[in-house]
Each structure stands twice: as structure tokens, then as C-alpha cells.
Amino acid sequence: MDVGVWGCRGSLAAPGPETIRYGGNTSCLDVVLSSGHHLILDAGTGMRPLGVMLDNAGVDEVHVLLTHLHLDHLQGLGFFRPLFRPGVAVHVWGPASPVQSLSDRIAIYLSPPLFPVRLADIPSDVTFHDEPLEAVAIGSATVRAAKVTHQGPTVGYRIEEGGASLVYLPDHEPSLGVTLANHPADWTSGYELACDADVLLHDAQYGDDEYPRHVGWGHSCVEHVVDFAAKANVGNVVLFHHDPYHDDDDLEHLLVQARARWTSAPERVRLACEGMTITLDANGVAFGAQAARA
Ligand SMILES: [Zn+2]
Ligand SMILES: [Zn+2]
């Protein structure tokens, strides 16, 4: 599978000269399978330019996998061009709620006064699915979700293809109420989903010094993401969901801290950045940059 990062900012888009190296768009990844299917992880503002690319390429089927419905993971959906093209099949997957269906909750955003077009008037062929807690096949991949600790119904996703595995946990506070280092693995939020993943993209919103002011906000600090990744025995960690108050230099400072904590293989910890590519196949994992955006 070929992964493109179109947005890796958390909470709120943060464009500007201070965030030019790592990007200001909120969460959105495009995962292209060997079968040609597109799995889009979250619908943050990075989904707008991704939609232009997919529209120009004539893509007529996409699967949008939403971790949850906070606006930084949903706002791009209304600006996703394929959504407005008749004949395009848009499958939207997201966390179930005992209160309202997924489509009813998304319609709160896609309706006046927050948005000019009602969800019911969208011209593409939109189908909603609750998160796949049991593995489902989409194209050449197997996709599975698990509920994780955050604010409100939230899931993470694991995508497997050809023996390679990608896990996406952008908003996650596995340390809430526990000390990760000595907490039983099987009782750790997200552990079973992330176990032995080749690549883990994980919430790294805060520096360790910032976390005490944000306990229970649903996010992780450097200590948490590194300890979680080590516990889950993942191959590569990509620090994701950058705080909008962190500029590029702040992020690189967090990377130094993270690498100092993962002493066994510091080079396998990276910062997510817009335009980053990740290829997972039989040859292993390769990181790069999109040619047009490098
Ligand atoms: Zn978020
Ligand atoms: Zn969130």
C-alpha cells in the first residue's frame, strides 16, 4: 500500500510561515491499495487538495474511514470534490453511537447554518457504515477498527495488505488513569489494534511538560506515544496530530525528546509532515515525499 499524508495537524488548521515544514492542514491520509482502491483516513482540511487530485484522476469509488466526528477530522468532507460528482461511490465509515446514526451526526455539520448544502442533497452515491469491529475486506486490504480512549465515540484503524500493517490512532490518550509502562498490555487502549504494526501513526499532541495541564483532554505526550509504541512492538512510529500552537521548531524539539526515549531504534521515530509518503510492501517500509509537493 502507498500512503500519502495530506494533513497531520491536530485540533485546528494552522497554516502560515511557522508551520510551513510540517504543514497546517488537519488529519487526512490517502491509502492507495494494490487493487487501486483509495482508503481515506479522516476528513480533515487536508481532504480538500486530496479531492482535487482524485477528481482530476477520475476516481469513482472512495472509502472514507473516520476515527470520530470532531471537526478537525470532518471539516474537509464538505470540500471534497468527488462528493459532488454524480456517479461517484463514497463509502463513509465511522464510530457507532447509541444515540444517533452516523449519517444523522454528520448531517449536523452538512446542513445550514453550518454548511450551505444538506447531506440529503449531495449528488454522489454516499453509503454509511458503522466502524468494522470485525475485520472487513476492502479491495485488496483487510480493515479493522477498535474503540479507543478519547473524547466521545472514537476508533482507530488497522489496515493490512500483503503481510504489511498500518495503524492509525490520531486522537488517543491510552495513559488516562494508568501508567503505561507497568499497565497490562491487554488492558491498554489501542494495544490489540497496534500490536506488531509495521507503521503506527499516533497522537503526539503535547510535550511531556505540557501534559499535566491537559490530562483527560484525549491526547498523548511524547512519553506516552513512545511507551505505547514500545509496548505494542511496532516497527516505525510517526508522531501525528501536531498541536496548532506548536511551530516547526517546537515539533523538531519533540522529535529529539521522542528519539531520546526510544533508545533502541531512534531512527524509527519520525514526525508526520504534509506530503510525506509511506510505502509498505514485501520489501518493507519506505518513507519519502510526494514529488509534486516536495
Ligand atoms: Zn483531532
Ligand atoms: Zn478529537
CATH architecture: 4-Layer Sandwich
What is the overall number of helices? 5
Distance between the termini: 20 Å
β-strand number: 15
Number of domains: 1
Percent of residues in helices: 10-25%
Poorly predicted spans: none
Classify the beta-strand content into a percent band. 25-35%
Strand order within the widest beta sheet: 6-5-4-3-2-1-14-15
Any idea of the CATH topology?
Metallo-beta-lactamase, Chain A
How would you describe what is shown here?
By secondary structure, this protein is an alpha/beta fold. The protein has a single domain, classed as 4-Layer Sandwich (Metallo-beta-lactamase, Chain A). The protein has 5 helices and 15 strands. It has helices at residues 47-56, 102-109, 191-194, 222-231, 248-261; strands at 2-7, 28-32, 38-41, 61-65, 89-94, 125-130, 136-138, 141-147, 155-161, 164-169, 199-203, 236-240, 269-271, 276-281, 284-289. The protein has an 8-stranded mixed sheet. Strands 7-8-9-10-11-12-13 form a 7-stranded mixed sheet. Strand 5 (89-94), helix 2 and strand 6 (125-130) form a beta-alpha-beta unit. Helix 4 packs across helix 5. The longest helix has 14 residues, at 248-261.
In short:
This protein is of the alpha/beta class and 294 residues long.
Topology, please?
Layout: E1 2-7, E2 28-32, E3 38-41, H1 47-56, E4 61-65, E5 89-94, H2 102-109, E6 125-130, E7 136-138, E8 141-147, E9 155-161, E10 164-169, H3 191-194, E11 199-203, H4 222-231, E12 236-240, H5 248-261, E13 269-271, E14 276-281, E15 284-289
Parallel strand pairs: 3-4, 4-5, 5-6, 10-11, 11-12, 12-13
Antiparallel strand pairs: 1-2, 1-14, 2-3, 7-8, 8-9, 9-10, 14-15
Bound molecules: zinc ion (2 copies).
One zinc ion binds next to loops.
